[in-house]
Design goal:
This protein has nine helices and nine strands. It is of the alpha/beta class. The structure holds pyridoxal-5'-phosphate (PLP). GO terms for molecular function: pyridoxal phosphate binding. Pyridoxal 5'-phosphate (PLP)-binding protein, which is involved in PLP homeostasis. Its cofactor is pyridoxal 5'-phosphate.
Amino acid sequence: MEASVAERWAAVQERIARAARRAGRDPAEVTVVAVTKTVPPERIVEAYACGLRIFGENRVEEAEEKIPQVHARLGSEAQVHWHLVGHLQRRKARRALGLFEVIHSVDSLPLAEKLSRLAVESGRVVEILLECNVSGEATKYGFPLHRWEEDPGQREAFMEAVARILDLPGLRVSGLMTVAPVASDPETVRPVFRRLRALRDFLAERFPRASWAHLSMGMTDDFEVAIEEGATMIRLGRAIFGERPVR
Ligand SMILES: *Cc1c(COP(=O)(O)O)cnc(C)c1O
């Protein structure tokens, strides 16, 4: 029989606690974003009943359809926080702002500028993370940073973008996000997480006016390694909801 969300969630919490302890960290430092792409509203309600409060979607269209359905089921008192974890096209920025509190996937200056303009227009501040491609995989979104340590050109191009983004009104930059390559052995992606943290430490020194508190890294196949390397937000889909239907 399929495991329930409650059973999966209990197992995940145990694994998070163990990984945190191995690294000498408090498990409470690790926020779980339950990634609900392809998950129907009733399963999201089940996750809410288990105590999960932060949900992540990767597509604006799917979120637009599903979020109201979830809220209709939970009622107006529910405390739900929606994060966008997938790539955002500039032309969908307005719709994304209407749906999400945190956008993990800001990967260009023009996108940040558009979000800033729209946030100011609607009188709010939106929390963003900067998505970084530190692995060099061509299929990944994110600021190109696979050679940031050894290539001053690549590094400084990013620093310049960051300086501009930090000057934009309506945005609160709170850290970095990355999607690691798919690997059968999570140990092989440890260096990816380690490099994102090193980049964060570099930015924190260079731009102390932003918080840089968050490292959004780690998914179902590699979250324990990500926690050992300093993740503060892990994005879990299958670990909580089971395998997704094949597209
Ligand atoms: C789907 C997705 C996740 C969750 O993936 P799992 O492997 O199911 O945990 C995390 N982050 C992003 C950006 C995703 O698109």
